[in-house]
Amino acid sequence: MEHSKSPQVSLGMPVYNGENFVAEAIQSILEQDFDDFELVITDNASTDRTADICLEYAQRDKRVRYVRNARNLGAAANFNRAFELSSGAYFKWCAHDDVLGSGFLMDCVRALDNDARHVIAYPRLLGIDGTGQLTSYVERVLPDMQGSSPASRFRLMVAAHGWDAAMFGLWRRESLAKTTLHEPYYGSDCALLAEMALLGTFVHAPNAILYSRDHPTRSVRLPSSERLAWQNPGGSNANAFELSRRLKHLVAIAYRHRRTAPLGMTLFHLVAWILDPLLIARFCLELVGVVSPKLRTKLRGAGLGALKRIHAASNRSPG
């Protein structure tokens, strides 16, 4: 089948040292029922067999394009590069360790085609383990956004602290191009989703399935020092200020889109969000880290231990 110069769908796969699962992820994309797509792989200067695996697929299938960065740019910049190198009207980020159900693209494209107000079509997300076996994890579905205001959608996504199904759903390119994209701190995807919610609605495509793989080297499983290096390989700051940077990012987003949603309303939602006691505690830890990173680490460990004990006690409680 001949493809137009600009396919309807672009998929961007940022990867670094992904030899463990990248072949399975690529294969699941090539086996989609929907055919009019390109896959742009941006390799962040991997040191394992990632390049060999990806180049083999690129030689086999013209829809696959492999781009290797001369150096590790950090996760955020590599995610953005995948989007910038793509051209499709719809765009999806693909994790190198996830697997798509065969009807994923067809169902998400149909959902976006049906209503121009939708900016993200998101799938049903199921967990799998390192061997590809289903786990008990099923990500919850977003509340219906139909009829909701931009400010209320912004509030929803700020409070959600991210949503993998939406993050790895299918995005409308013209809307994504109006955003700040990913910023170089862990949790920037949460702010990006809140920004997209200002621009339109998210729609559930229940027949599209994303199998999200959980394994020890997944970014959410990394200790804070390794997670910082994942985002900023050239940095040495032990205090990442992740929450502070997210708040700053969200304020910038609110100001950027003040004509879409009144600035007073979006800032009110941010104030209400940040007054959560757990978030206040996180802010305090970041401030302590300015003076004493060791004390911050010690207090953080004590706090996490207390939360685990409370959680364990609640699970033992009858009813």
From TrEMBL:
This is Glycosyl transferase. GO terms for molecular function: transferase activity. Residues 10-134 form the Glycosyltransferase 2-like domain. InterPro entries: Glyco_trans_2-like, Glycosyltransf_2, Nucleotide-diphossugar_trans. Keywords: Transferase. SUPFAM superfamilies: Nucleotide-diphospho-sugar transferases. Gene3D superfamilies: Spore Coat Polysaccharide Biosynthesis Protein SpsA, Chain A.
